[in-house]
């Protein structure tokens, strides 16, 4: 290769390099995009995660205090596990806070209105899946007894009030239970229940003798025997008697 050819090739290479530099100067963004794209992707993932966290936090805060945030289920007749059956009985009967609620007609009531009869007090809500599952067993339990002698007092803490409870009763065909609601949900806190469903066994003197957190098959033979023994019940219901 002659000296002239070498100089010509060197000149061509130099011109090519200068052209590349000029192109890069005219379009600086195109090169920066190679490192910006991963950064933008990471920011997007972080934003989505933050949105999910805010949604879950808002859902939890909107649920009644102390109650599990659960989806509503319409399969109210599902079986309740036998492992949830235990009741914690007290060594000595204790006084029960004077919780207040309304009945199906909107009349204000309190536990004092039921003094003189044993009570199974159940705090529940229509949005609570375990509560929905055990309600049919509570209805069947009340059907076994004269409500003038033993009352299954199922008090809902639904914010939507009596209409929500009556709709739920109609959907499941509950006939023996009365409708009672505490829209303020104060009863749950007054009774010291860490969650729902929560159930208290109250003797004829208005004193708590035991309680249970979680669902149960309340009309099972074993459970009925426990209630008979501790509350002194007779399983005979007066014909035509309504709660």
How is this structure best described in words?
With 243 residues, this protein is an alpha+beta fold. It folds into two domains: 3-62; 82-231, Glutaredoxin, CATH 3.40.30.10. Helix content is 42%, strand content 17%. The protein contains six helices and eight strands; from the N terminus they run ααββββαβαβαββα. The chain has helices at residues 3-26, 28-62, 129-144, 162-172, 186-190, 221-231, and strands at 88-95, 100-103, 108-110, 119-124, 151-156, 180-181, 198-202, 207-213. The longest helix is centred in the first third of the chain and has 35 residues, at 28-62.
The total of helices stands at: 6
The amount of beta strand, in percent, is 15-25%
Oligomer: single chain
Average pLDDT figure:
78
Task: Show unreliable segments.
Answer: 52-84, 238-243
The top-level CATH class of the largest domain is Alpha Beta
> What's the count of strands?
8
Order of helices and strands: HHEEEEHEHEHEEH
Strand order, largest beta sheet = 1-8-7-4-5-6-2-3
Using the coordinates shown, work out and report the CATH topology of the largest domain. Glutaredoxin
Radius of gyration: 34 Å
Label the CATH architecture of the largest domain.
3-Layer(aba) Sandwich
């Amino acid at each position: 290769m002659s000296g002239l050819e070498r100089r010509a090739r060197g000149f061509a290479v130099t011109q090519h390099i200068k052209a590349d530099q000029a192109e890069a100067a005219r379009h600086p963004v195109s090169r920066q995009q190679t490192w910006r794209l991963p950064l933008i992707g990471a920011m997007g993932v972080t934003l989505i995660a933050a949105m999910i966290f805010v949604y879950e936090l808002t859902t939890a805060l909107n649920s009644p205090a102390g109650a599990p945030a659960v989806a509503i289920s319409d399969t109210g007749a599902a079986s309740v596990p036998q492992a949830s059956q235990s009741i914690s009985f007290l060594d000595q009967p204790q006084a029960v806070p004077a919780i207040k609620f309304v009945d199906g007609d909107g009349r204000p009531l309190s536990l004092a209105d039921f003094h003189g009869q044993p009570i199974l007090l159940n705090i529940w809500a229509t949005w609570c899946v375990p509560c929905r599952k055990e309600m049919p067993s509570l209805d069947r339990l009340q059907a076994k007894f004269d409500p003038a002698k033993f009352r299954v007092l199922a008090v809902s803490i639904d914010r939507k009030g009596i209409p929500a409870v009556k709709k739920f009763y109609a959907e499941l065909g509950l006939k023996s239970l009365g409708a009672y609601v505490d829209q303020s949900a104060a009863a749950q806190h007054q009774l010291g229940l860490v969650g729902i469903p929560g159930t208290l066994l109250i003797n004829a003197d208005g004193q708590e003798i035991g309680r249970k957190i979680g669902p149960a098959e309340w009309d099972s033979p074993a459970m009925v025997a426990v209630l008979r023994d501790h509350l002194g019940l007779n399983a005979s219901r007066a014909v035509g008697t309504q709660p």
